[in-house]
Amino acid sequence: MDDIVKMIGLKNNCTFCGVFRRQALDRGAALLKVDKLVTGHNADDIAETVLLNILRGDIARLSRCTSITTGEDGPIPRCKPFKYTYEKEIVMYAYFKKLDYFSTECIYSPNAYRGFAREFIKDLERLRPRAILDIIKSGEDFRIATTTKMPEQGTCERCGYISSQKWCKACVLLEGLNRGLPKMGIGRPRGVNGDHKKETKKPGPAVKSIESKQCGSLDF
Amino acid sequence: MQLTLEFGGGLELLCDSEKIHKVNVDLPNGAAADDDFTMKHLLSWVRTNLIKERPEMFMKGDTVRPGVLVLVNDCDWELSGQLDTTIEEKDVIVFISTLHGG
């Protein structure tokens, strides 16, 4: 990861780390022929993700991020059993049961966008602790307008794995790193632009659908 | 008075990587002699005397940074009045950060 950051700078680190780590998890799980992949995401994480996706207008993720199980129609479903457990409860449990855990923070996390959502949520929790569960509930009850174009699931042309674009994110990022183009795969595609051919073929669905909507026709 | 302070969840890094501190604290100069010693006093004492770097990781304003758990004698300080919790001789106060990146 240090090598990657040397190349891309201190922004968008989470994108590279998250995508590659999940790819490693998926590949490892497939090698071990497991039935399910279970992660330790807690209530605070899910609430932060809901807020983050709203702040970024990531409609596709917004519709998926509060599901306790995802990918049920795929080879290895993923589950988050601690979805409703507060981080505070988990830390208290670990403390009283004298469980050993390592709490080193990722050195690149101070620059992460998620930090702002986290700060906000922690301030909310202090004033009204139920806010975290309520944000998750709101997230669960979101319904995406039927007229919004959503990405379709297909397969990556390069590695054959699941993808909503021509190439899966891991392949796009890897190609960018190998070619010395650290910005490839980062940010919203903006239109015809010489060196980002692959991603500009299909502009992000959320952007396109808002621009093409008539004033006053956004349904709430 | 004699107190035992513990730092966990990464906060120990702000205090020279020492998890447990046995300290002797007194009321600040401006307070009357028979004032109760509260968490409020303790926090400013800790900030001045124990936190060697990045104080913003431990405190925000008058209180601990949101996300830091405080246990007084193994009891959540929210049950005993937070900043108004009175501290007595031989008390054990634990600060655990719940904030972990990644």
TrEMBL record, chain A:
Q: Which residues form the Cytoplasmic tRNA 2-thiolation protein 1 C-terminal domain?
A: 154-184
UniProt keyword annotation of DNA-binding present: no
Skewed-composition ranges (Basic and acidic residues):
193-202
- Asked if the record carries the keyword Magnesium, the reply is no
NCBIfam families found in the cross-reference section: TIGR00269 family protein
- UniProt domain tRNA(Ile)-lysidine/2-thiocytidine synthase N-terminal: residue ranges: 21-111
- Species per Swiss-Prot/TrEMBL record: Camelina sativa
Region (Disordered), start-end ranges: 185-220
Protein known as: Cytoplasmic tRNA 2-thiolation protein 1 isoform X2
Q: Sorted alphabetically, which InterPro entries does this protein's record hold?
A: CTU1_C (IPR032442), Ncs6/Tuc1/Ctu1 (IPR000541), Rossmann-like_a/b/a_fold (IPR014729), TilS/TtcA_N (IPR011063), tRNA_thiolation_TtcA_Ctu1 (IPR035107)
Keywords from UniProt, A to Z, are: Transferase
UniProtKB/TrEMBL annotation, chain B:
Tell me, in one coarse class, where this protein mainly resides: cytoplasm
Q: Where is this cross-link: Glycyl lysine isopeptide (Gly-Lys) (interchain with K-? in acceptor proteins)?
A: 102
Highest rank taxon of the organism: Eukaryota
The pathway entry for this protein reads as: tRNA modification; 5-methoxycarbonylmethyl-2-thiouridine-tRNA biosynthesis
Q: Which SUPFAM superfamilies match?
A: MoaD/ThiS
> Keywords, A to Z?
Cytoplasm, Isopeptide bond, tRNA processing, Ubl conjugation pathway
List of residues that carry 1-thioglycine: 102
**Would I find Nucleotidyltransferase among this entry's keywords?**
no
Q: Where in the cell is it found?
A: Cytoplasm
Which residue stretches, if any, does this entry annotate as coiled coil?
Answer: none
- InterPro entries cross-referenced by the UniProt entry: Beta-grasp_dom_sf, Mopterin_synth/thiamin_S_b, Urm1
Q: How is it modified after translation?
A: C-terminal thiocarboxylation occurs in 2 steps, it is first acyl-adenylated (-COAMP) via the hesA/moeB/thiF part of the MOCS3/UBA4 homolog, then thiocarboxylated (-COSH) via the rhodanese domain of the MOCS3/UBA4 homolog.
Instruction: Give the similarity note.
Output: Belongs to the URM1 family.
Q: What is the role of this chain? A: Acts as a sulfur carrier required for 2-thiolation of mcm(5)S(2)U at tRNA wobble positions of cytosolic tRNA(Lys), tRNA(Glu) and tRNA(Gln). Serves as sulfur donor in tRNA 2-thiolation reaction by being thiocarboxylated (-COSH) at its C-terminus by MOCS3. The sulfur is then transferred to tRNA to form 2-thiolation of mcm(5)S(2)U. Also acts as a ubiquitin-like protein (UBL) that is covalently conjugated via an isopeptide bond to lysine residues of target proteins.
Record protein name field: Ubiquitin-related modifier 1 homolog
